[in-house]
Design brief:
By secondary structure, the chain is an alpha/beta fold. It has ten helices and twelve strands. Bound molecules: iron/sulfur cluster. Keywords: 4Fe-4S, Iron, Iron-sulfur, Metal-binding, S-adenosyl-L-methionine.
């Protein structure tokens, strides 16, 4: 049977936060307001704050519809992908249409840089879950870690997070990405924790480097340290270290295109691929072998783990 290759929809991917998440890419690869040193997608190629309909809305909706018809049953439809999703000018309309079309919850994973904009705030109000980021406690560290667009200033970004929370009464989880020797130090963590308190999210999720980062000096924090820092953020704080295991969905098998689609978004281990696509490990190995034979993928080593990426 011919399997459709999807351009904007990928996965379901294994998400440490969302279980099996059906990703939707709203902007071209690395179109972002930031150029984070820890970004697993590499360096930002288009740093912008220009909100546009980067992808035709009807094509996005058609693909999501098509994907859901294949029998995949994600825990979330996640608007994230390979850039900053709030740069998509029709994100509000997209969420609105998804809510009318499916009962699957819609999550938005955003760097939070544009949440000061009332249009962005209003656009996200219908999402079931919003996960913005806060990676720094002051302007200097913000500049060093997130390398934002020149028009995004730390205070404005923080005001946006606080202001959005006041308007948005559904689930809001704040992601804090800690980096060894940079933000994973007491003085910085205390400042980030104080701002987090003002934002008042339902949960704080501490994250660190798990995949090859954009810069070699973005180094992960060990579990012991993460546990120590988690205490600074209070009781609604969790450390993201793994994702839930899922059982295989009957009738859903993956094709080479599914695997390629998944790893073209971010580096994945064999475990990520097998679990994200709900396929057996040997099936994933077989598909990877096929893609390797055609020189369509490359492998990267990080520590003891092998990550697969698409050969571009
Ligand atoms: S981590 Fe997210 S916010 Fe940072 S550069 Fe990458 S895509 Fe943009």
């Amino acid at each position: 049977m011919h399997r459709q290759a999807f351009k904007y929809v990928y996965g379901p991917v294994p998400s440490r936060r969302l279980g099996r998440s059906l990703g939707v890419d709203l902007v071209p690869h690395k179109t972002c307001t930031y150029d984070c040193i820890y970004c697993q997608l590499g360096k930002t190629t288009k740093k912008t704050i220009m909100r546009r309909e980067y992808v035709p809305l009807n094509q996005l909706l058609a693909e999501i519809n098509q994907k859901l018809k294949t029998g995949c049953s994600p825990d979330y439809i996640t608007l994230a992908g390979s850039g900053e999703p709030t740069l998509y000018a029709k994100i509000g309309e997209l969420i609105d249409k998804l809510k009318k079309r499916t009962k699957k919850p819609v999550a938005v994973i955003t760097n939070g840089s544009l949440l000061w904009d009332p249009a962005v705030q209003d656009a996200l109000l219908q999402a079931d879950l919003v996960i913005p980021s806060l990676d720094a406690g002051d302007a200097d560290t913000f500049g060093y870690v997130n390398r934002p667009h020149g028009k995004i200033h730390f205070d404005k970004m923080v005001d946006g997070l606080i202001g959005f929370r006041k308007k948005y009464h559904k689930k809001l989880w704040l992601e804090v990405f800690l980096l060894s020797g940079i933000t994973a130090i007491d003085a910085e963590v205390i400042k980030i924790a104080a701002i987090s308190k003002e934002i008042a999210p339902d949960k704080i999720q501490l994250n660190t480097v798990a995949r090859p980062p954009a810069e070699v000096f973005a180094v992960p924090v060990n579990e012991l340290q993460m546990t120590k820092f988690a205490k600074r953020f209070g009781k609604n704080t969790e450390i993201i270290i793994n994702f839930r295991r899922h059982t295989r969905l009957s009738g859903f098998t993956a094709s080479s295109a599914d695997v390629l689609n998944l790893i073209s978004r971010r580096p994945c281990s064999l475990y990520d691929i097998a679990n994200g696509l709900s396929i057996a490990h040997n099936e994933a190995v077989k598909i990877l072998g096929h893609l390797e034979g055609k020189n369509l993928i490359e492998t990267h080593l990080k520590g003891n783990s092998t990550f697969y990426v698409s050969a571009k």
